[in-house]
Design a protein that fits this description.
Blueprint: H1 2-26, H2 33-55, H3 61-64, H4 81-106, H5 118-128, H6 159-166, H7 168-201, H8 213-229, H9 235-264, H10 275-284, H11 286-295, H12 302-307, H13 314-342, H14 360-391, E1 401-402, E2 411-412, H15 414-430, H16 434-464, H17 468-489, H18 493-527, H19 532-540, E3 545-554, H20 563-572, E4 574-586, E5 598-602, E6 608-615, H21 625-642, H22 652-667, E7 669-679, H23 686-701, E8 716-724
């Protein structure tokens, strides 16, 4: 069913293209064309506005609810009016520069054909410049259209691009940076739900001081468990449910902020002058620098603005941020600061104290619901980046479910979801003190922003070819700003800041172990691959029989055949009459055009073919077994007949070849794959022994690649073989 929906959607897209071409090139203009275009524009605007509304419930939850925990996370001692004005000025310019300029105006333009995030930036660099590491992931396809690679070949490569292509060290450093960014983003997905819900539930202690921290922690954990159980319904349904809550939050909090400004400090907006930032640091010195560890939380969730791009589109995210989120945050922080100027020692409960008593409980309910929604932004982003890394073979295979038939970017992973749930609950129950979690949160936020700045700089230089003056200006401003934030939050490593590093180290170790094992396997297979000439020799053995039926023999390499084939023929003494050597190839693009999905060609031996199934990291792999066989055989027939397209009648050997295909399909289809393990001999180094043993543990406990194609279990054959390390 999933395959039918996918094929149907692809066919409908093709129909739209043809229809568009007909209107523009084959039909004469008529009086109805202009109204039709106007109607299309109106529908497009309505769709964009609806998406912008839905982004409130998914993308911006973490960012817009940051007022709940920013001031409580600051280690303020004896704050003065000038201190609060300086802090507000820092937050205003952080939101304006990082939120508006960096993410909305620049980062959203660096999407990888609709996908965003640090790993999408890495794949964007890899597919435009030959800097991938795994041979199976190198982008050497001759089949991809020029539209798939918009920047490739348009300009002469920069010196920096040539440096990365020629230096394996530089390529590995880049991969490490991308992996670190992804691990930090996943850490963000763990800490955002914890700090958001905990900060909101802490508001119950103001009217009920007898409520203990343990009760607040327990209630927060229960709410988070419910949130994660809802994830299986998909982003669209969740966002439709959550968006009204965030709409109420973005409307109520700025109104309360305006009320607070009028009643406490009407001249608060004088603090937008950078003069107050300068005087703040001159007056507070090192202590002012340390306060940045709390101030940085005002921009938390901004990375989700970019990473969740695959769930929505650029226009909807820009509209929602510029016209709702940004004004709401500016007014809310202004109102909080105005209140704190008159009540300087209320900063430990800086949000709930500035709420008027007459509306305290309605705001508490909205804030609690909004905090739950806030968790969604980074949870969705985590699903996206995990899926990207899985299909690029940089992370162990986990189950990935597409929760929308029309939006491929909407994904859900049950295993990842429940691991996130356990870790979130553990963070709350073990580190219930909000300031400790805030310190950890600050480390994640600042590190992810800094990594995005570095990768965006490389994109500007190597792909966009932006003038160096503008690149230098961008890098100096944002790297300096975010570097100062990173240096400030690193002072909090002992006070909770070690949590994201521990999570990131664990994830990075898993990713590196998987990557290293996959790299060693590919290297072995390339070194011991079976050439077509060697296959002819093996089949020439009179004891080897060609048995009836069709066999899909899976191979990880395209230039040659897997060494498992030789192992199979020598021991089984047979090969099916129709054997199709199949390779699953993940290109470093989000999506592969439908006409490029399955690529076949005939080998020099009778009944032996090659098939390459190409997928991008945003494509679905759910092809049912029977439908998959039909698609491949149709492609093979078309390929065979194309060799005699100008010959009439069709030669008998060609007709026989086509009939052999049909006959083999009727007899039965089997799918053969290798089940390989490393043999760790005496000559292995201690590093290889440790890393490859860890890879085997991961490989034995992850999902198989074949069920992702919907292959029936009775038709699967696994051939075991030891690879000598």
């Amino acid at each position: 069913m999933a395959a039918d929906r996918e094929i149907g959607s692809l066919e409908s897209e093709m129909e739209v293209v043809v229809d568009s071409d007909n209107r523009n090139g084959l039909q004469s203009p008529n009086a109805n064309s202009i109204p039709l275009q106007q109607n299309d524009q109106v529908d497009s605007r309505k769709k964009t506005l609806l998406l912008a509304y839905k982004t409130l419930g998914v993308v911006f939850g973490g960012l817009v609810t940051s007022p709940l925990y920013v001031y409580p996370s600051m280690p303020l001692k004896s704050p003065t009016e000038e201190d609060y004005l300086g802090i507000y000025s820092i937050m205003f310019w952080t939101l304006s520069l990082i939120g508006v300029v960096k993410y909305v105006c620049i980062a959203l333009k660096a999407d990888d054909l609709g996908e965003g995030g640090t790993f999408a930036l890495y794949s964007l660099l890899c597919r435009n410049i030959n800097i991938g590491i795994l041979p199976s992931k190198s982008n050497n396809s001759k089949l991809s259209s020029s539209s798939t690679f918009p920047y490739e070949g348009t300009k002469k490569q920069s010196k920096l691009a040539r440096l990365f292509e020629s230096s394996m060290v530089a390529r590995r450093v880049l991969l490490f940076v991308a992996m670190l960014g992804m691990c930090m983003l996943i850490g963000d997905g763990i800490l955002t739900p914890a700090i958001s819900v905990l900060s909101a539930m802490d508001g119950i202690r103001a009217p009920f001081p007898a409520v203990s921290n343990s009760w607040v922690d327990a209630l927060s954990a229960i709410i988070l468990i419910i949130l994660f159980l809802l994830q299986r319904f998909g982003t669209s349904r969740v966002s439709f449910l959550f968006s009204p809550v965030m709409g109420a939050w973005t409307l109520v909090t700025p109104l309360v902020g305006i009320y607070s400004i009028v009643h406490h400090y009407p001249s608060i907006f004088k603090a937008v002058s950078p003069h107050y930032i300068l005087t703040f640091f001159l007056r507070n010195g090192k202590e002012g620098w340390r306060l940045l560890s709390g101030t940085v939380l005002c921009i938390t969730g901004s990375e989700a603005l970019f990473a969740d791009l695959g769930h929505f589109n650029k226009s909807s995210i820009r509209i929602a941020f510029l016209f709702t989120i940004y004004p709401s945050l500016v007014l809310t922080y202004a109102g909080q600061t105005a209140y704190l100027i008159k009540h300087p020692y209320d900063h430990r409960d800086g949000f709930y104290k500035f709420i008027p008593k007459s509306i305290y409980w309605p705001v508490f309910v909205i804030s609690t619901l909004a905090a739950i929604v806030a968790s969604q932004s980074l949870v969705s982003a985590t699903f996206s980046v995990i899926k990207q890394s899985v299909v690029l073979d940089y992370f162990p295979r986990v189950k990935v479910v597409h929760t929308s038939s029309s939006k491929e970017g909407e994904v859900y992973s049950p295993e990842v979801n429940y691991i996130l749930m356990v870790l979130c609950v553990a963070v709350i129950l073990i580190f219930g003190e909000g300031q400790d979690i805030g310190n950890a949160f600050g480390v994640v936020v600042s590190m992810v922003m800094l990594i995005t700045t570095v990768l965006l700089t490389l994109v500007m230089i190597m792909i966009w070819r932006t003038p160096l003056v503008l690149v230098f200006l961008y890098f100096i401003v944002f790297f300096t700003m975010e570097g100062v934030y990173v240096s400030a939050v690193c002072t909090k490593l002992v006070e909770g800041g070690w949590i994201p590093f521990a999570i990131s180290f664990m994830l990075a170790f898993i990713m590196f172990g998987w990557f290293y094992g996959r790299q060693r396997k590919v290297e072995y297979e390339l070194m011991h691959k079976i050439s077509p000439e060697r296959l002819k020799v093996l089949l020439a053995d009179p004891t080897v029989q060609r048995v009836p039926g069709m066999c899909f023999f899976y191979s990880n390499i395209q230039d040659g055949l897997t060494p498992i084939l030789g192992h199979y023929i020598k021991n089984m003494k047979s090969l099916h009459k129709i054997t199709i050597f199949t390779t699953l190839r993940y290109l470093l693009v989000p999506k592969v055009a439908s006409h490029e999905r399955i690529v076949v060609h005939k080998m020099d031996l009778k009944g032996v073919y090659r098939c390459v199934i190409q997928y991008g990291y945003a494509d679905s792999l759910n092809l049912e077994g029977n439908d998959f066989v039909r698609q491949v055989t149709d492609c093979l027939k078309a390929h065979i007949l194309s060799t005699v397209v100008c010959v009439s009648p069709v030669p008998s050997e060609v007709e026989e070849e086509v009939s052999d295909l049909e006959e083999a399909k009727l007899v039965g289809v089997v799918y053969v794959r290798g089940k390989t393990r490393f043999y760790l001999g005496k000559n292995c180094s201690w590093f290889d022994r440790g890393m490859l043993a860890f890879y085997e543990v991961l490989h034995n406990n992850c999902r198989s690649a074949l069920p992702a194609l919907g292959i029936p279990l009775p038709q699967r054959i696994e051939v075991g073989m030891l690879y000598e390390a």
